[in-house]
Design brief:
CATH topology of the largest domain: Rossmann fold
CATH superfamily of the largest domain: NAD(P)-binding Rossmann-like Domain
Shape: globular
Strand content: 15-25%
Radius of gyration: 20 Å
Low-confidence stretches: none
CATH architecture of the largest domain: 3-Layer(aba) Sandwich
CATH class of the largest domain: Alpha Beta
Helix content: 40-55%
Mean pLDDT: 95
Oligomer: single chain
Bound molecules: nicotinamide-adenine-dinucleotide, 2'deoxy-thymidine-5'-diphospho-alpha-D-glucose
Strand order of the largest sheet: 3-2-1-4-5-6-10
Structural class: alpha/beta
Amino acid sequence: MKKTILITGGAGFIGSHVVRLFVNKYPDYQIVNGDALTYAGNLENLNDVQDKPNYTFEKVDITDETAINALFEKYAFSGIIHLAAESHVDRSIQDPLTFIRTNVLGTAVLLNAARKYWKDAMDGKRFYHVSTDEVYGSLGEEGFFTEETAYDPRSPYSASKASSDHFVRAYFHTYHLPVVLSNCSNNYGSHHFPEKLIPLAIHNIRNNKPIPVYGTGENVRDWLFVDDHARAIDTIFHNGVTGETYNIGGFNEWKNIDLIRLLCKIMDSKLGREPGTSAQLITFVKDRAGHDQRYAIDASKLNKALGWAPSLQFEEGLEKTVDWYLANQDWLDHVTSGAYKKYYEEQYQQR
Ligand code: NAD
Ligand code: DAU
C-alpha cells in the first residue's frame, strides 16, 4: 500500500531538507508537510518540490488538537517524522512559554492523535521524533554524549525538547506506540534562518556588519551538514529499531571563534576582499545566559547499527553553504524583511 507520511516542520531549515529528500527519493510515498509557518517556516525553501504530485502542504499548528485530529482523519498516515519546534535557544530565554507550548504540548498532541488513530493497527506504523543533543546538557573538555548519557537540559529550549523526548518514550512504554528517536548535533547548510550563528555571520560579513561572538568564543559545538542529517533521518526512519534512540553527529568539534575565523577567511576569498578584512568585524558581546560550554556526540551506534556516516568535510560543507547564501541573496532579503509571508498569501490563498 502507498505510504502517506506526515513531516511536521517541513517548511523550516532541517524539515525542508527532509521533505526534499523524501519527495525526490520516494515517488511512491505521499509526503504531507504540516507546518504552522511561524517566523521560521518559509515555503520558498520548497520551491523546487512544491509542484511534485507526491507533495502536499497543510498549514497546521501542532498545538491545535482539533486541527491535528482533522489531519489524521483526512490522511491515513502510516508514518510521522516530527520536526516542528521552536528551535532557537536565545528566543527560549526571552519567551520560554512559547517553547513549552510548541515543543511539549505540540508533541503530546501529535502522540495522542497517533495513539488514537493507530490504536487497532500499529503494525507498519512509525512515529519518528527528531530531537537535539542539547538535552544532555554541557560537557567539559573531555568526553562525548552517548545514548546512555543522563538528561541534564539547561535552557528553556533544551528542557522543552527533553520533556518532549520523555513523552515520546512514555507513549512507547505505556501504549506501545511504535516510536523511534534521534538526538543530533548542530546543523549547518542552506536555508538556515539567519538568527543562528553561521547564517547570521555570513549575512553580517557580507553586509560589513559586526559579527557578534558571545563571551570569549571558546564554546564548542559539533557541526553536521544538514543533508547528512536528512540522510540519517531517512536511514533511521526506515531501518531504526522501534523504541530505540540514535545519536547523530559530525565528529567535527569547533570553538565558535575558530569557526568564525574560518568563515571570515572563506568570505574574504569569495568576496575578493584582502585577507583579514572580514575578521575585523568580529565583536565580542555579552554571553548567552546559561551558555552550554561544549557539545560532542558519539554517533558510533548509528554507524555500527545502520551504517550511517557523515559525507562531507567541514571546510567543504562551509564553502558550499557560503556559495548558497551568496547566490541566494533574494532568499535572505525575503527572510529578513518578512516578505516570505506575502509569498505564502500569493501562492496559497487563491488555491
Ligand atoms: P526551524 O526553527 O528552522 O524550523 C521549525 C519549523 O517548525 C518551522 O517551519 C516552523 O514554522 C515550524 N513550527 C514551529 N511551531 C510550529 C507549530 N506550533 N505547529 C506547526 N509547525 C510549527 O528548526 P530546525 O532548526 O529546522 O529544527 C527542526 C527540528 O530539529 C527541531 O525539532 C529541532 O529541535 C531539531 N534539531 C535542530 C538542530 C539544529 O541544529 N538546527 C539540531 C538538532 C535537532
Ligand atoms: O546542538 C543542537 C542545537 O544547535 C539545536 O538543537 C538548536 O535548535 C540549534 O539552534 C543549535 O543550538 P545552538 O545554541 O548551539 O546554536 P546557535 O547557532 O544559536 O549558536 C551556536 C553557538 O554560537 C553557541 O555557542 C552560541 C554562539 N553564538 C550564537 C549566536 C546566534 C554566538 O556566539 N553569537 C551569536 O550571535
